[in-house]
Amino acid sequence: MQILNERSRKVLYAVVQSYINYPDPVGSRVVTKKYSFGLSPATIRNIMADLEEMGFLLQPHTSAGRVPTDLGYRYYVDSLVAEGMISYSDIEILQELYRKLETLKNDMDLLLNEATRNLSMMSHYLGIAMSPMPDMTTLKRINLLKYKADAIAAVLLTDEGMIKNKVISVDSEISQKDLNRIAGLLNAEFSGYTFDEIRLKIVREMSKEKIKCDTLISRAMKICQEALSFPFSGLFVSGLAEVLELPDFADLGKIRELSKAIEDKHTIIKLLDKLSESDGVHVLIGSENSEDELKKLSLVVSPCREGDRPIGVVGIIGPTRMNYAKAMYIVEHTAKLITKMFSGR
After folding, report:
1. For 230-288, what is each residue's pLDDT tens digit?
2. Where exactly does CATH 3.30.390.60 map onto the chain?
3. Does the domain made of 6-80 have the CATH classification 1.10.10.10?
4. CB under 8 Å to 123, separation ≥6 — which residues?
5. For 299, phi and psi rounded to 5 degrees?
6. From-to residues of CATH 3.30.450.40 in the chain
7. Averaged confidence pLDDT in the chain
8. Where in the chain is the domain with CATH 1.10.10.10?
9. Crossing angle for the helix pair 6-21 and 41-53, to the nearest 10 degrees
10. Average pLDDT of span 86-102
């Protein structure tokens, strides 16, 4: 990225900040009135023209002011954003969020759902979160309950605090006593393994002759295999109604783009999964996103951890005209709250 001199940096900051606050192209007179640079409108106009030539600004129409490009936002995020641009009320909300999350830490799904709701409320963008993927999700215990003559209920509890329920059909009636024995066998064999590891172990075990001969163990393996065969859908999204009120989504085309990005959960999950192993806050601006559906949106995300192990990702999706300073602050602190909570339990 090109290095800007002090005057160019200040003018770029002024344009980005003005455009974030008011979604109208920014002219040199606006910059002169709002910011005390001691420069004439003509000088500022020349600097803005230079910034446009370097790719940091764009002029939508010949007679209009200028707006930041993705490159302009990137320079702003990397070089110009100062921490602490958050209101006292948002700090209070974060403190209250910690108290709420403490009561939900035994159910990861409820906890992440509450986190997304608060992220959206504070930012006015989409709050997003993702629970651990199957290769990171560790089984703590499985309970099996008689449901009907031809069905049982499997309840999976994970080390990350998730609870997964599934009703499984069985070809012949099975007693609760046998279900308890099967659950005991499965817990002794698979507790502490990830879901992906368990699936591989089941395939290996079921190929053994002794398993085929032992009816109880064979049924246990089949029940466990069925209990784990649910599609991963651990993505939580909150705040669509609020986001659609932003001027950035005033036309139907942009609404369709946003809706498509949300509906295709696989796109967001794939991106968040890549970031779950990393540290700190990540900001992906417009065209920086690898997925086409997200190239006109910005994401601010941060992983949550329990020790060295990732246990989820929280973040925000919004327009490229985003209040990045605030978004980065609340995402970082929400992730830290969740990490602190699980590290201390």
Report:
1. 655 578 999 988 888 888 888 777 777 788 778 777 788 888 888 888 888 999 999 99
2. 139-227
3. yes
4. 316, 318, 323, 326, 327, 330
5. -125, 140
6. 88-133+233-343
7. 85
8. 6-80
9. 90
10. 75
Q: Is there a contact between 142 and 224 (Cβ–Cβ < 8 Å)? A: yes
Give pLDDT tens digits for 310-333.
778 999 999 999 999 889 989 998
Provide the CB-side half-sphere exposure for 160 (13 A, CA): 32
Strand 67-68 and strand 57-58: the pairing is: antiparallel
Q: What CATH fold (topology level) applies to the domain 139-227? A: Enolase-like; domain 1 (3.30.390)
Residue 129 CA to residue 255 CA, distance in Å, equals 21
Going by CATH, does the domain composed of 88-133+233-343 fall within 3.30.450.40? Answer: yes
All residues at 6 or more sequence positions from 149 whose CB lies less than 8 Å from its CB, including other chains: 173
When pLDDT is averaged across residues 33-59 and rounded to a whole number, the result is: 91
Neighbours of 277 (CB within 10 A): 10
| Helix, strand, coil % over all residues of the chain, rounded to 5 | 50, 20, 30
The whole-number pLDDT of residue 87 equals 66
Give 310's strand partners: 305
**pLDDT greater than 70 at residue 224:** yes
